[in-house]
Amino acid sequence: MPTHFLRYVGEPRSEDDGYAAALNDANLTTLDPWSTSDENIEAHFVLGGRRSTVELSPMARDVFDLGAIVYIADEIVPRATADDRWTRVFAFTVPVADMARWESASSKLVSCLSFLSGDTYALTWMERPPNVPGGPAHRTKLGGNYDAVCLFSGGVDSLLGTNMLLSENKRVLLIGHYADGVTSSAQRDLFAFIEKKYPGRAALLQVNVARSLKRNHRFELPKKAEITHRARSFLFLTAGVAAAMATGTTRLYIPENGLIAVNAPLGRSRQGTLSTRTAHPRYIELFNDVLSALGIDVRVQNPFSYQSKTDMVQSVTEADLREALIRSVSCAHAGNLRWEGDSTITHCGYCVPCLYRRAAFLLAGIEEDGYLYDVFKDLRKMSDDTARDFRLLVRFALSIASAKEVEVMAALLRHGAFSAGPTGDEYTRRAQMLRRWAASFIELARQRATTPTRKIVGL
């Protein structure tokens, strides 16, 4: 059975029979994003360290709010309750300003969301009342003439993507979504570096969408029950699109190394949406299809589609940029960085993002501290859970290094097929990237790992 959600957009008028009936339907969970003094979803925009008003057109507001309600709904419904313990069924009733445009994009939107999260979606649109609030008024307003909007996570890839765009003399609006203080702090720290290196050429707009911390809500939310967050990327991109629309910008960049983007599965347990598809080329294609169907003149692209993190970091020669890379945060456990009371630890060292980062840095001659575990030396004393990803990654690299071309292509396709592109070489270039990474990672592991570690992982 589907779990039903309704987007709240204010009190119904006398002619809003469908909306009024939905508000009174006890089977629907009402999601109130940033609309009232007692909303159950808060959205904050911070520009230059100050709360800001982002003046959104009705369409941009609908895009952003859809990202917010999908994100919160994703947290409410536990995957464990699904028949297969993964695939949930969502039904959304969404009042919007231009129902015809959303209806024309509905099937593409369902395909996009389903590919991203592995869930099933049903979308019902209705005309929204004209009294939707425009958001809280604060002292600073978003403005400026930008050539590009770029998602800015506080990690290696977004820093290098930003640096690339600014080095091309573009003016860039950075969009940083954060769910914890560590991520927010990393974004501000790296932006300070960017501002010093390219003064006046970039601005950072930080966005936070979360369950409201206010004590009393008109519409109470069920407790948070799911942490897989497969739909989080949809919120990232809708925030970026809304900012692009607000500034008249048509290019939205999601800098993500090509290896993580295709996220070739390390084992059977990581196939499909069991691993993230945050920047998968098929997901970006589907998201762009939605924007086209809505008549929104914004296009999303990944500038690092054919580069692994190792490729990217090895290309960095500037000393100041290499130093800034060390201050970035890549860990999948970034919200829990104070392990064992040691404030110097900034990365777990054993999650997949940490493993890709560590290998890239070492191969580029960048040494850094701050890891809870050094998998090359500590594997024997690590638990099965903390050692699992390194074992899988070594096994995967070995399989790629010895694989036939068709086997490498199969690894690329296990997360979903994507367009071959106008030149037809999309798969070939990504396969070459995969082989480059595998060869360099195996060489590093053999040189760096202790004898017990090499025996454990089969090196």
The averaged pLDDT comes out at 89
Spatial ordering of strands, largest sheet: 7-4-3-10-9-8-11-12
> Helix segment count?
16
Structural class: alpha/beta
Number of strands: 12
Q: Say what oligomer this is.
A: single chain
How far apart the termini lie comes to 48 Å
Strand content: 5-15%
- Overall 3D form: globular
Report the major sheet.
8 strands, mixed
Low-confidence stretches: 134-139, 269-274
List SSEs in N-to-C order.
Answer: EHEEEHEHEEEHEHEHEHHEHHHHHHHH
How would you sum up this structure, described in words?
This protein has 16 helices and 12 strands. It has an 8-stranded mixed sheet with strand order 7-4-3-10-9-8-11-12, sandwiched between helices. It has a 4-stranded parallel sheet with strand order 2-1-5-6, with helices on both faces. The protein has helices at residues 17-23, 58-76, 99-117, 156-167, 181-197, 232-247, 258-262, 281-294, 309-314, 319-326, 352-363, 375-378, 384-401, 405-413, 426-448, 451-457, and strands spanning 3-7, 28-31, 41-47, 50-53, 89-96, 120-127, 140-141, 148-151, 172-177, 202-211, 251-253, 299-301. Helix 5 (181-197) links the parallel strand 9 (172-177) and strand 10. The protein is α/β, with parallel strands linked by helices and 459 residues long. Helix content is 43%, strand content 14%. Helix 2 (58-76) runs antiparallel to helix 6 and helix 3 (99-117) packs antiparallel against helix 8 (281-294).
